[in-house]
Structure formats: C-alpha cells, structure tokens
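Slide 14.
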Amino acid sequence: MKTLYISDLDGTLLDSTPNTSDYTNETINKLNADGFIISFATARSYTTAKKVTKGLDMTHPAVVHTGTFIVDKDGKILHKNTFSKSDSDYILDVVLSLGLNPIVYSLIDNKEQFSFIRNRLNKETLDFLSKRKDDPRTREIHTTESLYDGEVYYFTLIGDEDITKPLYEKLKNEFQCYFQQDMYSGDYWLEILPKNATKANAIKQLAEMLNCQKIVAFGDGINDVEMFKLSDECYAVENAVKDLKSIATAVIGSNLDDAVAQWLKENLKR
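Slide 15: predicted structure.
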C-alpha cells in the first residue's frame, strides 16, 4: 500500500528561524531517495515555502496556499482551486464597502501576482509587505478596478482583531475563511479562499495523483483539523493546539526538536 506522508510547515516541520533544519533536510531527502513519498501542505505560497525549505529536495508535488494549488518542484501548477469570477467580485465588493484594503492574490497571464494599493494599507500590512520586497509576484497598483484583475484565489487582510473578525463572521459560512493570530508578528490575519480550497481536499487530490492509498499527516494548528480527519494516521507536534492533539493518533515531540523528521526516521524502513 503506497503511503503519502504529508506535513504542515510553520510550527511543525520548520524550526524557530523558521526553516527546515539540516537534520530534517538530510532525513527527508534520504527517505524520499529511498522511495518513500514525503511532502508538505502549507498556507504559504510556493515562493515563500521554497525559501524556508531550501535544503529539501522537492521530490514530490506539494500543497500550497492552504490547498489552492498543488505544485511541482519548479512551481508549476498541477491542480488549482480558485474563485469563480462572481465570487471573487462579491468578496472584494464586501471588503471595500467596509473600508478595508486587502492584498489580492490572482493568476494574471497565468502567473501568480499579489496586488495592493500601497497608500491605502495599514501599518500591519505594510510591515508584511516590507518582508516581500524582492518577491517577483509583487504588483503595486493605483486603482480599485485593478484589484479585480485575473483569476483570484486568495484574499489577505491583516490588522486589529476588531477590524478583521466582523468580516470573518460575515463570510465564514460562504467561503473558506481562516481567522487567527500570526505566531511571528502577533497580528491578526483573515484569509479568504474558495470553499473547496482546503488542505484536506488538496491532499486527497495529491494522494490520487500519486496513486497513494494511505495518508499520514503531521500538524500543529487549527487549520490542520480537516487534514487530520482525512488521514489514516495523524500526529500532532508537542506545541500543537489542544483541539488538534485531541484528535491525533499520537502526540510527538516539538517542532524545535525535529519531531517530524525523527518520527519518519524511526518508523520508515525498507
């Protein structure tokens, strides 16, 4: 029985830097070379995931943007779950009507872009963008109309809880919405994705693509719950949230101690 071993990145496979450690890189690279199928599923884009996993040989396709895309080692999109034009226009209309200013992620001319109007953004969003200065997806625009361009797949709003949470409450039953506090900055994030763009859906699609009959997952956050429910076995790291630990097959060590790589090394043998 072929098995897909799939891990979340931040708080799970990554250390505090945050990157995959040398130990994790060496362990997973060797196991993949030995014929095992080990990959990751993350809320990060391919661009930022590639940076923090630069020591990993991306042998198998990965899930990025919380299930929006399945990509290969070169970032080529193998499968996508994007908004319909009517849905993306509706969300943007609602966001703008509340006086909020998002970052809008779209496929434009078949390339990933994130669009924003700089002089309308709050400090928290500008702080986030300051860490993306060299990102090739950056698309600074000057008119609201340009936010509607392309095939939209993701909206990000960053700010105070009292600003972002009401929008979450308004849209959470219609779309895939994640509202949480960022573990690094402490800022509140609202992420809005298509209803079918979930880690669980994309992992199921990936397993079918790779002809895997069994799924073993690793995670730490509330957005890993559906991934755990889908999996045949699921392991929460020691630093995971209580809700995830409560449904896990077992709790392993901390992400700071390479717990996922250690579990893989101890349990995967030819």
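Speaker note: The chain has two domains: 3-80+197-267, 85-193.
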